[in-house]
Amino acid sequence: MFNAVLTLRLSRHGVDIVIIGFFAWIALLPTFKFAWAPLVERFSIPGFGRFWGRRRSWIMLSQLGIFLSMVAMAATSNDESLPLTALFAILLAFWTTTLEVAADGWRIELAPTQAEQGPLVAANLWGYRSAMVAAGSGAVLVAAWADWTWAYLVIAVAAFAPFPVLAAMRPEAEGAKGRWSALLLGVMVSLAILFVTAIATTAVGWVLLSAVQGAGVSAKTNVTPFVLAVALLPFILLAAALPRIRRLPPDAPQRMHAFVAPYVEIFWRYGYAVLAVLAFVSLYRMGDVLALTLSHPLWNDMGYSLEQIGVADGVVALSSSMFGVALGGWLTMRLPLPWTLMLGAVAAALGNWIYVWLAHTEPSSFVLYTSVAVDQFGNGFAGAVFVVYLSMLVSPRFAGAQYAFLSGFAFLLPRLLAGASGSMQTQIGYDGFFLLSGALSFAAIFLLPLVARAKGRVAE
């Protein structure tokens, strides 16, 4: 709702393709979820946490944030003020990401081995992709029948539906009492947190937007070289810090501090091999992220109707991605992980290259549905394998925080480049763009020999 559906909404309102690309940077927010993941790991929301426990307390807060953010996006659905549209999309991205942090930590705690993760990841992604496709397809179809305001309101109500289910669940501790008082206190505290978060986001956004406008950045600015320079910066900083991290003794403050230890530990454990791992994960989902950014504008420019796009995003995407997720999860239990990772990279690349065919073919429902089916199968297959791989990299001591860091870093480079996708499209066209995005996903294969040999050392 803050990415694919929003880019289609902006396209229908005639927003410039370069500006639409800039909106893809909203998806950068989940990349930095490691910054607040330790809060989710350590604290609970007053009221909710007392009765339902730490992880469910954050999920309930996040669902309130998701609901109110989408209601605000519905109220500004004419997109007459793009900064306001961006503000509410950023808030939606933040609370969606916070919910994922809580859920991912719980999943890894439940199933710490590769054999256990395969089926659990498949089940998790089935639910995740069902919701994603239902939201995308449902919003587009409602917009076709009514307007974008109703589209966002309908999905907001659907997204809030699990909240009363959570509220009706049994307490964390047997025999705990005070459900209604815990619910009331939790809602009041949550509304206060949501208000403070919205004010802080508005202030930071105003400062950043003023700085960007002052620097002269506009729809005519080629931001690609700047984005590439920024994308390389984390690797340079990590390479410089690794020698010192590797020499840290067991009682070093950096390895003991609650907010720093999860991230120091993973670099201490893998050493210089972590650079190859991070480069691999950055490339592996590149095609999926870039395709998500410009696939909907491509369909719109090709003349496909909202009804056709809704069906493609619904029945076609859901069934294809489900099959891909199931096959990927099944193969991780039966093949060595490097082999399934290689198959996933090939599937993801083909899912991007199929849009080159679409861009050069006369529009028809068959062409659209076939392209989406190939794309979503590859996306689902690669996604399932990738989640298992990341889950095997983390330490059980810091499961939630380390997974948040790895999964966030994995999308840093792709989402940085996604923000420049509009600029790239104006230079090389849709066909060149999707050829490039597929090639970047395929390139991850060349790092597999290094990644397969990366073994973490055992702590003292």
Please state the second-level CATH architecture.
Up-down Bundle
Rg value: 22 Å
Helix content: over 70%
The amount of beta strand, in percent, is under 5%
What's the CATH class, please? Answer: Mainly Alpha
* Poorly predicted runs: none
- Would you count the extended β strands for me? 0
- What spatial form do the alpha-carbon principal axes imply? globular
CATH topology: Growth Hormone, Chain: A
Number of helices, counting only DSSP H or I runs of 4 residues or more: 21
The ordered H/E elements are HHHHHHHHHHHHHHHHHHHHH
Number of domains: 1
Question: In angstroms, what separates the terminal alpha carbons?
Answer: 46 Å
Structural class: mainly alpha
Task: Name the CATH homologous superfamily.
Answer: MFS general substrate transporter like domains
Biggest sheet architecture: none
Based on the model shown, name its key terms:
single chain, 460 residues, mainly alpha, Growth Hormone, Chain: A, globular
Describe, in plain words, how this protein is organized in 3D:
With 460 residues, this protein is mainly alpha-helical. It has one domain: Growth Hormone, Chain: A, CATH 1.20.1250.20. It is 77% helix and 0% strand. It contains 21 helices and no strands. It has helices at 4-12, 17-23, 37-42, 48-52, 54-75, 82-110, 114-145, 148-160, 162-167, 179-214, 224-246, 261-270, 273-284, 286-301, 306-332, 337-359, 365-393, 399-410, 412-419, 421-442, 448-452. Helix 5 (54-75) runs antiparallel to helix 6 (82-110), helix 5 packs antiparallel against helix 8 (148-160) and helix 15 runs parallel beside helix 17 (365-393). The longest helix is centred in the middle third of the chain and has 36 residues, at 179-214. The chain starts with a helix and ends in an 8-residue tail after the last helix.
